[in-house]
Design goal:
Low-confidence stretches: none
Mean pLDDT: 76
Order of helices and strands: HHEEH
Shape: elongated
Number of helices: 3
Oligomer: single chain
Structural class: mainly alpha
Helix content: 40-55%
Strand content: 5-15%
């Protein structure tokens, strides 16, 4: 016997309901094959997702400085 529960707005409040619905929609948009989170690289200084250029610069900058200088 399977029992399912669908909370309503009155059970948990409008803000909580919207937050959960928004999170589920984001998971669905990122990964259609399953309901698991997809990691993202974040730029905490600017409060947004990091661009590919920023990621490459972050990885290459320490690598260049550690090269042996002649």
């Amino acid at each position: 016997m399977m029992i399912s529960y669908k909370p309503s707005h009155s059970d948990c409040g409008d803000e909580v309901y919207k937050a959960v619905a928004n999170a589920l929609l984001e998971i669905k948009n990122y990964n259609l094959s399953g309901m698991y989170a997809v990691p993202e690289i974040w730029n905490p200084k600017q409060g947004r997702k990091a661009s590919l250029k920023e990621i490459i610069n972050y990885v290459i900058k320490p690598w260049k400085s550690n090269k042996r200088k002649r």
